[in-house]
Amino acid sequence: MKNRRFVWCALAPAFLLLGCFYIYPIVFNIQNSLTDTSLFQLRQGGNYVGSANYFELFTSPEFGRVLWNTAFWLTFVGVALRILIGLGLALALHSRTIARYRLKTFARLALIVPWATPPIVSIIIFKWLLDPRVGDINQALLGMGLIREPIAFLGSAHWVWPVILLIVIWNTLPLVTLSFVASLQSVPDELIEAAEMDGATALQVARFIHLPHLKPAIIVMVLMSTFWTFNNFVYVWLTTGAGPGFLTNVMATDVYIKAFIDGRMGFSSAMGVVMAAAMLVFGVIYLRVVAAREFKDVLR
Amino acid sequence: MFIKRIRTLVLIAVGAMTASLALAQTTINFRFHDVEANQMRQALDEFEKRNPGIKVNLQRANWSDGRAQYLREAAVGSAPDVVQIVYVWARPFAASGALKPLDDLIAKGGLGIKGWSDFIARDLAAGPDGKTYAVPFATDTFALIYNHELLAAAGFQSPPKTWPEMLAMSRTIRERTGKQGFGFPTGSCGTPAIWFYLNFYWWSKGVNLVEEAPNGKFRISINAEQVADAFNYFNTYVKDGLNPPSMASSCSFGSPEMVEGLVNGDFAMASMADFTAARVLDTWNKRHPGKPNPFRTALHPADIKPSTTHFGGRMVALAPNTKNVDAAWKLVQFLTQPEPTFTKHLTGYTPSQLEAVRTQQFGPGMEGFREQLLLARSWGPYAIGPVSIPFMWNASGRSAGSVFIRQKTAEQAAQEFVALLNAELAKHQK
Question: In chain B, which residues have their Cβ closer than 8 Å to the Cβ of A254?
Fold first, then answer.
């Protein structure tokens, strides 16, 4: 009994913090989503409108496009490319060729540079590089005669998503790659040597030894990248402002537009609740797949 | 001996604290959104010299984020003491309790050249309760700025008078000089410049987005065909290669693409506010010292109605949470005097006072702005109606943007835009 009381006392500060900084904002947001609160009525609060905001959201023709942009372009394509490129880079960094030329340290340091670059700085760098007037990329393409006129990459329907993904991936790839490299290092050398003695090719070693070892890391990275990407506001907003038109509008930018440009805080809160619900699904998957395995001894 | 020393030290410390309290300065925060922050800082330095007890901390914010940021701060009582706002923010800010009523302070006098009655746009400074919540600071409008040498090279002696003429001239300029005619930003953001051009186009055809009916209700008075007509007009420049492609990555009339495009002679004509035009002229003069400036300004194109642009401007207001009302008001009084703010520092600005507009020296090449100011109109029902300007601004810009990138046809985008306006009106019409 005494033990139980001690445990509760020890946990109380943590629960208090969780209550203040997580539970209260969530409850407040849900409450807000049921009102017509506007940016101009923050002090007064809005009127209760029931589920009207949710109904409007789900019946709005724009919502489908925003959801597609968020789920497909930003999250699915973004995460898939990050995992695939990260995997390729990790295998390359772990390869004997890199070790033979003593490039391991250099390659890993080089990989850390994008990671250490704050997103806003990365975005500004890329915007300069891609600028139609003075950007090096346009100048190089013009110089090589590949294009006749500069391309407004961020204003073109064809280029804007690849460019956003390029920036996101450049900035966030190192974490994925380094996680995979760390996992690869835990593969026993004897296992690889034995496989090679049995005549396994490099591809077979990668397929039957490295990949199974990397599986837990891949699952964690897929889920974590999905969390970070689905919610991401910074990359899209600072790169394109959700444009051209509404072409790159994702849920996070739409929440911002609805709240701070259209002034509809209540409606924007409803969007936030829907976003959180979507994240909850990934959260449950994460708990079931990863945490349950990682902490099985603790949970038992 | 030791106690004596301690006593002396304590006395020195108390004395120093008392002296520092006596010399304590009042520090006020001033939120300024325009790009001319350096010039404003210089003006504030002068204010501090004249008012040794007051220190002004200049806070910067972007116009596109400024509104939301200030409202958030005002809601929790942490807004800057003095804030620069645009004309059309005063009323909704006042309605939301985010500004301090100024009637008592205004009654004390000391504002502007000829006092409060000489200020322009006083009606927009009033809240729904009739009280005054802001002081007009600077006024501006858009005019057509053109490079007369580039026009002459294409065989034109004067700027266009109508919209079709401007389009035709742009084609000719492209054919004869290889340069572009009318350059405008086509990128999308929350506050895109195309919003202004679309409205000037509609107003010249006698059309408004929102109108107030005789019964006091508001209605959307534009139809999808009229919207599509404007979208198609501006899209012709994009689709026919008459607008520089670099404009797709810019959404502001004061962006480097616009200023540099004019200065470098990449395009011959543009539409912008007087302070941006002043920057164009200034940049050109610095790069070509001693050479005559090729830029002139003129009225915007007209149609069945005369050339009409908006009567825009900035105001300064006090936050309801300010604890330094006297110091903040002194700053407002200082900023509304032409000397030295407008005469020495913000020389591209026109004070929002009739006397100042009458006597303002627009400088060589800038005379078109005086003409245009006389024809400018207020945002009127846009500003006091139930559909907020930021909503229309964002929606019109993005709808046009979707046409420019060929995501939607002008007709499709126009129908969606009008439907959006009607839905927004229905939500907020009382």
Answer: none
Do residue A150 and residue B245 have CB atoms under 8 angstroms apart? Answer: yes
Express each pLDDT in A165-194 by its tens digit. Answer: 999 999 999 999 999 999 999 999 899 899
Give contacts of B402 with chain A, Cβ < 8 Å: 244-247
CB atoms A152 and B249 under 8 Å: yes
Torsion angles phi and psi, residue B266, rounded to 5? -70, -30
Is the same domain home to B303 and B366? no
Residue A144, classed as helix, strand or coil, is coil
Residue of B nearest to A237 (CA): B189
| B95–A40 CB contact, under 8 Å | yes
CB nearest to A260's CB, from B68, B97, B405: B68
Of B336, B354, B375, the domain-final residue: B375
ipTM above 0.95 for this complex: no
Q: What SS3 class is residue A41? A: helix
Q: Give the distance from residue A128's alpha carbon to the nearest chain B alpha carbon, in angstroms.
A: 11
- Structural domains counted in chain A: 1
Nearest to B75 among A42, A156, A246 (CB): A42
Domain boundary among B375, B395, B415: B375
- Smallest CA-to-CA distance from A219 within A173, A176, A182, A260 is with A176
Token pair for A92: 């390359």
Is B85's Cβ below 8 Å from some Cβ in A? no
- Whether residues B149 and B177 share a domain: the answer is yes
Instruction: Work out how many domains chain B is built from and give that number.
Output: 2
Cis peptide leading into residue A244 (ω within 30°): yes
Picking from B71, B98, B190, the nearest residue to A261 by CB comes out as B190
> Across the interface, which of B96, B248, B401 has its CB nearest the CB of A40?
B96
Q: Is the distance from CB of B382 to CB of B398 less than 8 angstroms?
A: no
Whether A155 is in a domain gets the answer yes
Q: Do B214 and B292 belong together in one domain? A: yes
> Is a pLDDT exceeding 50 seen at residue B52?
yes
Q: Do A43 and B97 touch (CB under 8 A)?
A: yes
Distance separating alpha carbons of residues A25 and A43, to the nearest angstrom: 17
Same domain, B226 and B357: no
pLDDT at B304 over 50: yes
Coil, helix or strand for B318? strand
Q: Is the pLDDT of residue B9 over 90?
A: no
Let me know if residue A113 belongs to a domain: yes
Cβ–Cβ gap B249/A132 under 8 Å:
yes
Q: What is the mean pLDDT of chain A?
A: 91
Q: What is the mean pLDDT of residues B169-186?
A: 96
Question: For A188-202, B14-28, B75-89, which range has the lowest pLDDT when averaged over its residues?
Answer: B14-28
Which residues of B, range 297-336, sit inside 8 Å of A by Cβ?
none
Residue by residue, DSSP assigns B99-166 as S---HHHHHT---TTT-GGGBTTTGGGB-TTS-B--EEEEEE-EEEEEEHHHHHHTT-SS--SBHHHH
Give the residue numbers spanning the domain of B125.
26-133+312-375
Residue B212 CB partners (closer than 8 Å, separation 6+): B218, B380, B381, B384, B385
pTM here is 0.85
The reply to whether B239 touches chain A by the CB within 8 Å rule is no
Put simply, the answer to whether B402 touches A244 (Cβ < 8 Å) is: yes
